[in-house]
Amino acid sequence: MLRTQIVKLTTRASTRSFSVAAIRRAEGDLGGTRAGGSASADSFNKREQASENLFIREKEMENLKKLKAKLKEQRKHLDELDAHIQEMEGEKAGEQSH
Questions:
Q1: Going by C-beta distance under 8 Å and a sequence separation of 6 or more, which residues neighbour residue 61?
Q2: What total number of domains does the chain contain?
Q3: CA 79 to CA 2: how far, in whole Å?
Q4: How far apart are CA 67 and CA 73, in angstroms?
Q5: Rounded Cα distance, 3 and 10, in Å
Q6: CB of 33 within 8 A of CB of 45?
Q7: pTM tops 0.85
Q8: Residue 74 CA to chain centroid, in angstroms?
Q9: For the chain, which residues score pLDDT lower than 50?
Q10: What's residue 66's pLDDT?
Q11: Is there a contact between 39 and 45 (Cβ–Cβ < 8 Å)?
Q12: Is residue 96 assigned to a domain?
């Protein structure tokens, strides 16, 4: 008799449905917090946003430095071309006066 009760207890526990403990979610909900929701003022979210803003600002500053360096090189090249043009005009003016 004891043996039959043990068998009944083990078979009943193994076939038990766990649908009561299922997580209920709305359609399209992935479990994360939404922007502007009740968790938008969370300190972690603020810190994460500040970190992202800092990263983007640093990348923009790097790009700006690269552009300024390139502009400086272009300006130097244009100055060299202007000097060459002035030199050529001076030689041409010297030839015309002879």
A1: none
A2: 1
A3: 103
A4: 10
A5: 11
A6: yes
A7: no
A8: 31
A9: none
A10: 98
A11: yes
A12: yes
Q: Amino acid identity, residue 2? A: L
pLDDT on residue 91: 85
Pick the closest to residue 33 from 49, 56, 51, 20 (CA basis).
49
User: In whole angstroms, what separates CA 26 from the centre of its chain?
Assistant: 28
- Provide the 3-class DSSP secondary structure of residue 28: coil
**Residue 93 tokens, joined:** 């003016």
In a domain, 2, yes or no: no
What tokens does 9 get? 């207890």
The three state secondary structure string of 42-88 is: CHHHHHHHHHHHHHHHHHHHHHHHHHHHHHHHHHHHHHHHHHHHHHH
pLDDT of res. 79: 97
d(CA 77, CA 46): 46
Distance between alpha carbon 27 and the CA centroid of its chain, in Å? 27
Residue at 94 is within a domain: yes
35 and 41 Cβ atoms separated by less than 8 Å:
no
Question: Range of 82's domain?
Answer: 72-98
pLDDT at 33: 59
The answer to whether residue 42 sits within a structural domain is no
